[in-house]
Protein: Agmatinase
Amino acid sequence: MRFDEAYSGHVFIGASPDYEKSRVVLYGMPMDWTVSYRPGSRFGPGRIREVSIGLEEYSPYLDRELAEISYFDAGDMPLPFGNPQKSLDMIEDYVGTLLDDGKFPFGLGGEHLVTWPVIRAVYKKYPDLAAIHFDAHTDLRTDYEGEPLSHATPIRKTAELIGPRNVYSFGIRSGLKEEFEWAEKNGMQIAKFEVLEPLKKVLPSLSGRHVYVTVDIDVLDPAFAPGTGTVDAGGITSKELLASIHAIARSNVNVIGCDLVEVAPVYDHSEQTANTASKLVREMMLGWVK
Structure:
């Protein structure tokens, strides 16, 4: 966690060395302590930064370039290996500091559980918070094999904190029957399989709201993002995910923070997933930071 100087390792392309003058802070949450299938997402933030050198700084989608916004790359948080609770507490404290400093927090995961402490920190500042969630999985379990701190639980925890009706999930194609039933019973909106069209229908109702957006890379079909811990066939294309990011950008939704999680480089032999994630980061910053 670095505040007063630029991270000394690989930084995201175009990052400013000046924390004080930067609107956005990129920070890595290299944690995969609770995964139930394939570990390795703790290496995702570093790899996303490394491959960003291959990006153009200009977005033809948004007609903006990275030079138009100022962002600081704080590097990866020094999370204690194998200690989920302490790691989550550190993330919450860090994001709270960023918010106190007036920054737009942009997290790179790491497993999806890292979103939970960020939501807690953001909710303290924005009690009217809504959450947009892109994922293959519901992540609505109360526990996984008896463990409540699991990558299968962050959206359930989020829904219980900010209210199920304030959580909107898209691209979902995997989960327990009980999870879908709980969502329906409690008024949480889940768009199964698709993202762009159901998102467009929801965005007007979120106009003017403070919204946090979390993107699990496995919302993409494995053909587009094989480098992730829990692949699930039948996902959307990278083109559709980009269009969804741009739909949010062109709406009146007030995005106040975001993250992109679950990139696992060890399964990404062509670096296809990391390169896709890097482009998504560019579009999210240029689209959501006004």
Remarks:
- The longest strand covers residues 254-261.
